[in-house]
Amino acid sequence: MSAVEVSGVTRRFGAVVALDDVSLEVGHGELVGLLGPNGAGKSTLLSLVSGQRRPDTGVVRLNGHDPRDARSRTVLGLTPQETGLPATLRVREVVDFVGGHYPDPVPTAELLDQFGLVDLANRQTGSLSGGQKRRLAVALSLVGRPRVVLLDEPTTGLDVSGRTALWDAIRAYHASGGTVLLTSHYLEEVQALAERVVVIDHGTVLADDSLENILGKVGARRVQLTDAAGVRQEHLVTDSDAFVRDLVRSGAEFKDLEIRGASLEEAFGQLVDATNEGAVR
Ligand SMILES: Nc1ncnc2c1ncn2[C@@H]1O[C@H](COP(=O)(O)OP(=O)(O)OP(=O)(O)O)[C@@H](O)[C@H]1O
């Protein structure tokens, strides 16, 4: 039994197909990065796994149970993209309050320390900066010692040190056996944390592979040439030497050959937009 199972799931909002026949399994103790551009369907997927929404078709399971059933969610921690914190409560009070809902919460002092919030313990949450609120929101997802945590863009709005501290806390949770499914726009973030990467766009899973293999794809080279018809072509390939050898062997006419390393953004964009089958190989 997997920690998260999504099988043949489709979810529409009116005419928009947010998820289109998506299947995904996350094993216990895995740390999986869900990577995709705005509107790809990442948050929708998390909302199904956390039982906030129901799929139109397909099946979603959390530790083998329907996440719509509240009992199955006692093992779940969640940081949505936006968290409303009670503005007049102090940081310590919010952690105490949320922890009070769980049988064995992480002691408040320990959690605040882990997230670099000790100096802010007596501050009303309404006075926190955006980045400080974000850190508190992620801390709250872990207070109940969940077995599975869903983090929707956990480090958006954080500065470099805040981001690093949060990554450390997520790694520590994972090292203790926790399962993490996190979304991000940032290749860098997924690279820093995840063992496995699921690339999603337009509600469809484009790639689901180890970080190593995904990085192999984004380590692509860009090859440009003008073909016999005078059309400028562009290919992203992992082995430009082999590509050129094949090209020459094929006898196809070409000119103005150019090869250069693709940036991560370019290569990832290509993976996401890949209308051109086999463009990344
Ligand atoms: N409640 C809703 N009503 C109508 N459309 C929605 C709703 N929620 C999501 N959508 C649409 O579904 C698609 C997927 O949205 P979703 O929020 O899952 O994407 P995302 O990958 O999380 O994007 P982002 O990175 O911008 O947060 C988008 O086209 C979005 O506009």
Quaternary state reads: single chain
Q: What is the H/E string?
A: EEEHEEHHHEHEHEEHEEHEH
Fraction in helix: 25-40%
**Strand element count:** 12
Residue-averaged pLDDT: 89
Tell me the name of the CATH class of the largest domain.
Alpha Beta
Beta-strand percent range: 25-35%
CATH superfamily of the largest domain: P-loop containing nucleotide triphosphate hydrolases
Poorly predicted segments: 275-281
* Cα end-to-end separation: 33 Å
Largest sheet: 6 strands, mixed
What is the domain tally? 2
- What is the CA-atom radius of gyration, in angstroms? 22 Å
CATH topology of the largest domain: Rossmann fold
Protein name: ABC transporter ATP-binding protein
GO molecular function, one term: ATP binding
Subcellular location: Cell membrane
Keywords: Antibiotic resistance, ATP-binding, Nucleotide-binding, Transport
Overall description:
The chain is α/β, with parallel strands linked by helices. The chain has two domains: 4-210, P-loop containing nucleotide triphosphate hydrolases (Rossmann fold), CATH 3.40.50.300; 221-261. It contains nine helices and twelve strands. Strands 5-6-7-3-8-9 form a six-stranded mixed sheet, with helices on both faces. Strand 8 (196-201) and strand 9 (204-210) form a beta hairpin. The radius of gyration is 22 Å and the shape is elongated. Residues 275-281 have low confidence and may be disordered. Adenosine-5'-triphosphate binds next to strand 2 and helix 1. It is a peripheral membrane protein. Keywords: Antibiotic resistance, ATP-binding, Nucleotide-binding, Transport. This is ABC transporter ATP-binding protein. Its main location: membrane. It is found in: Cell membrane.
